[in-house]
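hey team, just a heads up i'm posting the complex here instead of the shared drive bc the drive is being weird again. everything in one block, sequence lines first with there labels, then the predicted structure for the whole assembly after. its three chains so it's a bit long, scroll down
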Amino acid sequence: VAPRRITLLTDFGTADGYVGAMKGVIAAIAPAALIDDISHEIVAGDIAAAAWCLGMYWREYPRGSVHVCVVDPGVGGARRALAAELDGRLFVAPDNGVLTRALAAVRELRIVEISSDNLLRPQRSATFHGRDVFAPAAAHLASGIPLGRFGNAVEDPISLTLPEARVIGDAISGEVVHSDRFGNLITNIPGNLVTGESRIILEWAPTQRVATGATYSDVAVGEVLGLTGSAGFLEIAVRDGNASQRLGAGRGARVHIDAVGRGTRTP
Amino acid sequence: VAPRRITLLTDFGTADGYVGAMKGVIAAIAPAALIDDISHEIVAGDIAAAAWCLGMYWREYPRGSVHVCVVDPGVGGARRALAAELDGRLFVAPDNGVLTRALAAVRELRIVEISSDNLLRPQRSATFHGRDVFAPAAAHLASGIPLGRFGNAVEDPISLTLPEARVIGDAISGEVVHSDRFGNLITNIPGNLVTGESRIILEWAPTQRVATGATYSDVAVGEVLGLTGSAGFLEIAVRDGNASQRLGAGRGARVHIDAVGRGTRTP
Amino acid sequence: VAPRRITLLTDFGTADGYVGAMKGVIAAIAPAALIDDISHEIVAGDIAAAAWCLGMYWREYPRGSVHVCVVDPGVGGARRALAAELDGRLFVAPDNGVLTRALAAVRELRIVEISSDNLLRPQRSATFHGRDVFAPAAAHLASGIPLGRFGNAVEDPISLTLPEARVIGDAISGEVVHSDRFGNLITNIPGNLVTGESRIILEWAPTQRVATGATYSDVAVGEVLGLTGSAGFLEIAVRDGNASQRLGAGRGARVHIDAVGRGTRTP
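-- predicted structure starts here --
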């Protein structure tokens, strides 16, 4: 039997020892667990960015994996601590929307509020539930403690409102939902709606020519293009460059498409 | 039996392959060891920051874990290389004070100087003892080689002088000892000495109002507060903000409290 | 039998979930594999920096380890995906030169083009072969699938041209090939050619005095020195300082030595 994997996603950075403390707590409870860092470089308190990041990997992991997500500006306040099972993967996270994209994608889910004192650190700080609540809960989940033991069912987890692209006749209107390390501007417009005949209009730079392509190498170095990214959505990119910097845009910037691809189309 | 864990704390960054080389050396000697990154983003040569970080996690790990700490500006010079056992956890580190906070907290300790050539890399560079000394020593420790085999006992490890808060009558005077990623200014003032009746005075910004609270959510967004942090000490924070940037302060900045909490108090 | 180790080197950063997706794919195929992060902070698209980094660690790992290198600006285009066995270590990487320094150092090598569809993700994006090609290939290699199963042999992998130091009579002329996190300027001049009698001339700062030393502590704090670094080459460093910033130089800056060490020498 392979050991369970526990993944860690936080906005803690690493230099203060907070992530180290979480790993130590896990190691003490579940000594054989494999701990995979996902990121500790989420912008402090950016729940939407954490939700995006989590959406990229949670289902790549096999069933039984435990995903820890601690981007938690409300720590110590009234927000609940959640443990969840979504399509067979286990999660611990504050109830602040960080699970939004995972929740939006699943068929089977169970969520409980983490409240069983004997599964947590005996003395809990007001500022560091990563160490005191989420790490021990994750380690106990990885050790096989059933979800129901952690607390009562939660029916109304908090979800972020995710902007959706709107199709209006022959056009589609969406926005940038994530800007990645390469400066790629990832929109909420399904990539399969954009064809070589589509025109991509950047609302904040309407005169900018944006080529369409299947891959970065379809355009010259430095050229702006729209292509379908790895999550299936339209991305605005610059070949061998940084579209976010070059075009001065980020999350929330609006993008429009006309001549949406639908098989046949009247010019 | 669960495999041993080896934790890594350095100021190497990751992009130059130095940490990779250390991990490879460990993998070659102790192939089943689990390697947990703590941080490679300590500010170059900042021994005090490394000591703080180490203090946050070393005892969370179970006995038998091996903690590697390589913040080592004196590499290649006369400073000794240490292997230690502190309350059952094992350490390898340069003798430069990086173990100060761990040493200050333990009851049982044994320290030796790493000098047994056959437990180290045959050829050692003058600049990279992380790879040539500390990684092989850690891997051998994790493999069960006893501490005494590494060299002779050390009775006088170097310790940093840690500033301590001073209580003077009804007041207490301390300083910021660490500024974390969120900009929280962590002082050396025990949090239980500060009550709702205490007044917190920032020496560098004496007119700044600082609320007292039990948790961030006790104040409005953007407000400055003092609360007890996860290590039990007073922290100066800004709710959903960065106190270090907002208040223009960091390590060494002085903080004073009057009306120290002592149960009863004459106004 | 110890589980196989898979190392990851990318320019993805961590905050977008791309590395998380790769780890999840690996965990699903090879659940017991140990995943060691090397770096995700290579400058975006900097193949030479990735090749340098890889050169520092690949052979420290034991035979059978799998090294994943995804710095891949040509993703989705015509560049091949490679799987290789170099002196017993396994590699997956784009065919863009990232393996140059490893290839230059080996005696036994086998390289194939990854093309066997049933060992890859069924649907492959045009932008993220880390997840769709390299992670599954690495996991299958770690699971014992033989190299030949991945595709046909490659005889002509792309290699970067590595600048070599030139010896001219009594002098040697080289250049900085890597600047590390500490600002150390690592040249391509073999360290054993520089002696205490050598004069080190920085072409971009010819009046700068550069001491020679065996270790940082041979000079005063803040002084510039040349010493042999951990890879055996001359490094220009500042004790307890940053030579790259202080001297305003980086990769490609030229360095000259006269009075090359050769045992005996006429003054």
